[in-house]
Each structure stands twice: as structure tokens, then as C-alpha cells.
Amino acid sequence: MAERRFGVGYALAPKKQQSFIQDSLVSLARSRGIDLVRIEREIPLADQGPFDCVLHKLYGDDWRRQLEDFRAKNPNAVIIDYPEAIERLHNRISMLQVVSELKIEDRSETFGIPKQIVIYDKETLFDRPAWEGLKFPVIAKPLVADGSAKSHKMALIFNHDGLSNLKPPIVLQEFVNHGGVIFKVYVVGEYVKCVKRKSLPDVSEEEKLGSLEGLLSFSQVSNLATNERTDDKYYKKMHLDETEMPPQSFLTDIARGLRRAMKLNLFNFDVIRDARFGNRYLIIDINYFPGYAKMPGYETVLTDFFCDIMEKKEREVEKGLEEKDGADSRGCDKEMRKLVSNAYCSDGDDGVLPVSPLSREEENPIQV
């Protein structure tokens, strides 16, 4: 009997495709019965395939409609992941709201998010009483987090003078000293991997009082450009390799909670350790489908993930077929859709957390 092979169609932007779909991944996946097939952008998705799974990182109304058409024609196919679930990560406020909803008990470590507020206009930006709950320094981030270069442009603001160059809508997030180290936690289904990266140096009391420029621009906290402010002596003294990692079980619990709440399989979240409390951690960012190729052994991790998805899909389809005889055809079809639509992250809770558009009236700081 011929080996059962599975087709995983991928739809990625050119830059993402170049970094993620490497020969090493394609070869390993093929050796384990998984064929990675590029989805043609010029042809409707529903007219391509057949695909057992669609892996994507594309956005827009047209792509969303194509996914819906594909799902209608292929109810047993697995979509990684659904646009309505990904959407909440495009807004830096709704992105971190889910953290406040997590409940992790019986841990000596605690977690949360920094104090932050969304600013929609210049008037509010310079209205000190509107956000007097925040203390300088603060990090200014674009409200929209869609992966574009613009969405990565951030600034560390030391005082009120640094506010003049900001362009709302923005999120102001209180900067917390964290030893110049950020922990990037990669999640691939049930797999969780944490790596350490250099971050912004701690800010001293003298700097807080305004001895520095009012504003420091940067693109990514964990990847300062060479022309941006760096302090080699600071990092040499810091000894990144000697920095203690957060407990793996603690990060796994958070990752599992985020995965269930967000209904997402592929994401990473950035964590810092609050320098004021050794066991207090703050989640400052969550990204969908990050640069996994930077993660050691990513080929094995992703191939295992694809195989697990296909095995679970097969089991659930077989189970659904066995139950079909005693079920109303319409009810069975609905159940089948429910089974495969959350094929890897259902864990007993169907559906996706709603993404509520932020209105101007919702300018309350999120404080944890």
C-alpha cells in the first residue's frame, strides 16, 4: 500500500518565504511524508491543491475571502491559523489584553504586562493629566503591529521634551529596567523554546532626570542597529551567557495559556524580568509567525508540528466518520467542521476570542 502523503500549501510574502522555506526544511518534511507546496498568488486558492493544510501569513479582505472559499470546498483541511485569531495581534492593546486573562496557579513566579496607555491624538499626548499614571521613561510604539517596517519604529522617551516628535496613534508603555536582556519565547504548537537576546540597557536615576536626549529611536528592542545607542562596556559587564533563564515550566504554562486563549499555533512572545523583583516577569510583545529560521533546529520542530497536525486530523476525521451513521448529516457536518477547524489548539474551548475595535472612549490604561 502506497505511503499516505500530506500536502501543506504555504502562502507567504516573498521575504518570509525566503527565510522560512529553506531546502533543509523542505527536504526533512518530504522524508517524513509532508510535501510543502507553494500557493500561487495569481490563482484562486480554492482552485489549487488539494491541500491537507494551509500555512499562511497573508492579510487583507481578498485573502480572507479566499480562505473562506477554500474552507467551504475543503471542510476537512486545517488552516494555520485563522485570520480572525491573528487579527488581535495587529493591535498593541488587544495584543496584551489576553495576558491579563491568563490564570497560572501554584507558581513562585508572577507575570503581567507593563503599565501602558493608547494615545490617539497630539492633544492627548501633551495632556499630562490624561496619562499621569505613567512614569518616565516610556517606550512609544505604533498602535498598529502589522509586521511592516513602520510598525517596528519605536522610541524610548526620557522626558516630556521627547514627546514632540511622536505621531499618534501610539502606545506609551512604561519602561522597566530588566538587566538589558530580553527572553524571546517561540511557540510551535505544543513546543516551547526560549532564547536570550540583548535588549535596551537599564536606565539610571540620573538618566531619568533628563541628562540624556529626550528621545532614543530604535527599530527592535532585541536588535539594536549599529548606528543606534549601544554601550559595549555595559554588555561586556552584563555577561549575557550568565543570565539565568526563566523556568521552562513557567514559560510553558504561559505559552499553553496564550495558545488556548488566542487560538493560535505559531507565535512568539517577548518577556523581560523586572529588575526590582527577581521572580516578576513582564510580557511586552506578542508576534504571529515569527522568524523561526533563527531558532536552532527549526526544521525538526516545524516538521514534527506538521506531522502532529496531520496525525491528529486523520484521527479526528476517522472518529467523525464512525459517528456519522448515528448523527444527523447536518449536525455531523457541523461537528466535523468544528473538529478540524481547531485541529491543533482546541483543548476543550471552541471558537476565537473576539477582537473588539478600540474606540476613542477606551483610552483607559491597562495596568497589571
From TrEMBL:
ATP binds at residues 92, 141, 173-184, 199. Residues 103-318 form the ATP-grasp domain. It catalyses: 1D-myo-inositol 3,4,5,6-tetrakisphosphate + ATP = 1D-myo-inositol 1,3,4,5,6-pentakisphosphate + ADP + H(+). Transmembrane segments: none annotated. 1D-myo-inositol 1,3,4-trisphosphate binds at K16, H152, K184, N287, G291. It comes from the Eukaryota. Keywords: ATP-binding, Kinase, Magnesium, Metal-binding, Nucleotide-binding, Transferase. 1D-myo-inositol 1,3,4,6-tetrakisphosphate binds at K57. The keyword Transcription regulation does not apply. GO terms for molecular function: ATP binding; inositol-1,3,4-trisphosphate 5-kinase activity; inositol-1,3,4-trisphosphate 6-kinase activity; inositol-3,4,5,6-tetrakisphosphate 1-kinase activity; magnesium ion binding. Pfam families: Ins134_P3_kin, Ins134_P3_kin_N. The keyword Hydrolase does not apply. Mg(2+) 2 binds at D285, N287. Kinase that can phosphorylate various inositol polyphosphate such as Ins(3,4,5,6)P4 or Ins(1,3,4)P3. Monomer. This is Inositol-tetrakisphosphate 1-kinase.
